[in-house]
Fold this protein.
Amino acid sequence: MFAKGVLLTVSAVCVVVLSSGARAADQTLSAPAASWSGCYVGASVGYARADSDVTDAPFRDGAYAGSGFSWNTAGAPYDTFGTDDAGIAGGVEAGCDRRFDLGGNAFVLGGVIDFSLTNLSGTGTSAISSDTHAGFDVDWAASARLRAGIAASDVLFYVTGGYALANIDVRAYDRSLPTVMDVSGGGTENGWVAGGGVEWRFKPDWSVGLEYLHYDFGKVTATGAATFPTEAYPRFENDVTFDTIRIGLKWRM
């Protein structure tokens, strides 16, 4: 739902900016259009939200492997629950673009790398046992992306996507007395990222933009030996995604 809402918001902003750009173009026909070819560096800041769908997955290691049992269930359907968190993300980026004029339209192709710091963490509680909890922490994210768009004078509309990685730590624990389970996992995780945005070149060497990105890192697993029973190896699979919407400023060389 969050991703859908952000896409609608970005689309609305694009329509407003395009209309404004068209009016400005009518009033200043003698002004040259931005070339959009060249490299840039920039910084951005914005809103970030992470979600994790946690599954109490069946044992794969130890004496109970292959039994179909999980930490809190004796078989499917397995316990699932969610957790989320929202915060601020800020970072830097660098990239290059190339403009191509085809059929009277100005197309822009390019590549960009970026790095962002954030502090997203969330903890959820099992629907079966209130003693069982699982959570995640995201400290930073980076990406290497392609982007492609169409330029309308000094305004660029684009889509983007590529490779992503992030530092994601996951943990699951049982607060029974004494603690009978506390397992963890994660680290630098690989995934994909996709999104889109709009960018306005308000001066020859400067541009400002609004960008939405959706990151998906698949399953990040917390596992290890339980304190009791020691033959059990709990396995909690975290399906981690997060979304950002950010404003960026670029200096174009």
Observations:
- The radius of gyration is 23 Å.
- The CA atoms of residues 36 and 137 lie 38 Å apart.
- Residues 2-28+38-252 form a domain with the Porin fold (CATH 2.40.160.20).
- Residues 1-32 have pLDDT under 50 and may be disordered.
